[in-house]
Structure formats: C-alpha cells, structure tokens
Amino acid sequence: MLGFVFLGAGAQKWNPYAVRAAVSPAPMLPHEFGGNGELTFVVGNSGNEVMKRVADQEMTLMITLSYGVPADEDPLASVGGPWAGKFRWSYDPSLGTYMAVQKEDIPAASEGLVSIRYKVTGNSRSSAPANGFNVNLQQPPYTNGVNLTHDDDVSAYTFVRAYDYGDAPASYGEAVHEIDVFKDPGSGNYLNYVYLGRSVDAEPSGFHTSGADGDDLNGSDDEDGVVFPELIRGDTVALPVVVTIHEGGYGVLNAWIDWNGDGDFTDPGEKFAGPVDFFESGTKTLTLIVPTEAEISKPVYARFRLGENKGSPAGSHEWGEVEDYLLTIREKETDQESKIDPVLPSGVPVKFQDYDYITPAIYAAGSVVFKSMADNRQEKTKTITDKFSVTP
Fold first, then answer.
1. Which residue spans within 170-281 are E strands per DSSP?
2. Phi, psi (rounded to 5 degrees) for 76
3. Rounded to an integer, what distance in angstroms lies between the CA atom of residue 384 and that of residue 34?
4. What are phi and psi of 204, to 5 degrees?
C-alpha cells in the first residue's frame, strides 16, 4: 500500500519527491543464469497545490541502472507502473540512464509507482551490492525555494547469488554449493566457476525426491557429470567423471554410494572416491568395486561433490556442484549349463556357448578343462574332477 508524504499544517505549495526504491528479487541470479528482476520507486507531490506542467520547466527524473540494462529489447517497453504515463521517456544506453520528463499535471498530495524490468549484465557481491538503480529528481524551476530537497534522490541495490542442491531423499543430508561466478578483477578470469559435466543450473532450494531427480524436474537437467555402466555385485568397473573448470579455477571431487541402502552415506566403504583434484576441464576415470553384499532388492543412491576439499556428503561448499543419482545393482548371473558329447579324456579343451544345442554326454572321472562363453560371452577355463553327467 502506498503511503503519502504529508507536511502537515502550513504545507508547501509543491513538493515533488522520489521515495521507497526497491529491487526484486533480492538477491538476483547472476548474469550466467539469466538474472533479472524489477526495479520500483514511488514518485509524488506532497504539496497542497497541483504541480502544473510548464513548458521548459517540467519535473525530470534521471534513473541510472547499475550492473544491468533494461530487460526488453526496446528499453521503453521495460517501463511500467501506474505513474509511468505521467512522463515522456527516453533511454541513453551509453550511460545506462533513463530520462523521464513530466508531460502532465501532478495532483496535490498524490503519488504513484513506477517500475522498470531489469536484466543483470554484471555480478556484484554481497559485500558490495551494486545491482540496482538510482533515481535523481530535478524539480521544476518554478518550485525552487519553496519545496524540500532531501527527498529528491533515492537508490536501491542488491547482489547476485546462485546455489546448487543435492536432490536425493532428505535422509542423506542437505548438500549445497554456492555457484561461484565472480571473476578476478585483474585477469578477468573466473575464480572458481567449476561444475560436474557440461552445465549447471541454479536452484532456489533443495528438491528431495525418491528418484533423485528433483533438480532435473525443477529447471534444466544438469546432472551430466557421470554415466554409470551396469553395476553387478562383485564386479570392478571404470567410471568416467566429466568436469568443467573455467580458466584458473580448481575443484576437488569426493563421491559416495549407499551400498547397503540404509538411507545414508556414512557406513564404512560408502565413500568410494576422493579427494580427487581437478585443475582443468576433462575426464578422470574412477575405479568402482561393487561389494558382493551390495543391496539389490531396491535402488540405492550415489552422491558426487566437486568443490572445496571437504570430505562430508552433507553441508555447504563455497563453490562447485553436487549431483545425486539413483542406481540399480544386480546379482551376478551364474554360468549357463551347456552339455557336450562324447566322453572325453582329461585335459581336452572344449568350448561351451550359451543356448547352443549340444548332444547329451557323460564325462569319465578325471580332470577335464574346457572354455565357457556363458558369462558375458567371455571365455573361461574350468576343471571337472569327478564323473559328470550332462544333458542339453
């Protein structure tokens, strides 16, 4: 609700003013994530007489944007609010400044809102907020000496900030990374803009879901740092991890899998990688040994964190990204039984192949070495040390 500025008994004839500047949202998203918002302020006349529009003596507003530009391609299309129509607008892109010239009378004891849609082009820190605007009101010359001047200038500034959250169920703890998009003022390079895979998006909060996909369903699907092979109990697999490191940054990778499916990453052996240093973009291949007792009756969760050198699956990092995954682990399949004919002496190699038809046979007692392609179509050597009867 707008609140008028009154001067009480003996009020001045005219008192143009600009007050209550605001930036929304605050903070904003960085330029890298399409940060944008709205700038608003209130302009009015608290005097007891109408402030007439007098040619060449109009009230003027100078509105200078900082670390941003009008959000629309046409800067004038970005201007709105109930009182925007009381002014004639122009925009100077070289200065980042709007000029609004009074084009109609301003009633006594009245005020109204002006808004500007804003797009972030530069990132400012919380320690020195600079994303916003300043309004300077220049009163009509005919009001000089008969109006207050302490309410003719108003500003509002915020800063930029972006976070990435883990999206595994809440029992795994809140993992949050601030996405560092700030640059070295000397080199112009990013300081620690690093993330898993080829992209990262910013999120307003954590989205804990049973599918570890809350991040993907609320924004872009940026969980592209790891592609898992088939996981089978007892197997050892290669696990490539892709990271992006901008300019001179670096990140440390740590990773966990909830092998027993008990809802946390804190059991022995569940941290399977880290710390692994990354000083440039690329791929590093981790060795993953799947425990023989890994949970197979339900999916389990994995968490990868690239950022500071912290070894905890939960908590905050000042830069980087976290990615959570839902995994299925299978039991190792036994070799398919295949049969041969006829009785063979010991030491004779025989090749078995899954699903091939082979005639019934009996092995005599003794050691027979043969090769099987039943397990993942890989040949293996085995020994039979007793009489062995087989059928297809």
1. 175-178, 194-196, 231-232, 236-245, 251-257, 271-278
2. -70, -25
3. 68
4. -75, -25
Token pair of 269 as six digits: 């052996």
Q: Is the peptide bond before 25 cis (omega within 30 degrees of 0)?
A: yes
Q: Quickly list H helices, the chain.
A: 214-217
Give the span between the Cα atoms of 20 and 239, in whole angstroms: 55
Cα angle, residue 137 at apex, residues 136 and 140 outer, rounded to 5°:
150
pLDDT in tens, 15-69: 999 999 999 999 999 999 999 999 999 999 998 999 999 999 999 999 999 999 9
Are 16-158 and 163-330 in the same CATH fold?
yes
Question: What residue ranges do the domains of the chain occupy?
Answer: 16-158, 163-330, 334-392
Name the one residue in this structure whose structure tokens are 């609320």. Answer: 218
Strand order in the sheet with 194-196: 194-196, 236-245, 282-289
Tokens of 73: 């391609």
Distance CA 346, CA 180 (A): 68
Quick one: tokens of 216? 């993907």
Contact 203, 223 (CB under 8 A): no
CATH topology of domain 163-330: Immunoglobulin-like (2.60.40)
Residue whose entry in the numeric block shows the structure tokens 């399977």: 272
* pTM (2 d.p.): 0.77
Give the 3-state secondary structure percentages of the chain, helix then strand then coil, rounded to 5: 5, 40, 55
CATH number of the structural domain 16-158: 2.60.40.690
Q: Which two tokens stand for residue 298?
A: 């339900």
Give the Å distances, CA to CA, from 138 to 8, 145, 147.
Answer: 23, 13, 12
Q: Which tokens belong to 122? A: 């530069």
Contact 75, 91 (CB under 8 A): yes
pLDDT digits (tens, 9 = 90+) for 108-121: 999 999 999 999 99
Q: Distance of CA 34 to CAs 48, 88, 204, 295, Å?
A: 45, 29, 14, 42
Q: Which residues of the chain have pLDDT under 70?
A: 1-11, 145-149, 206, 210-222, 334-392
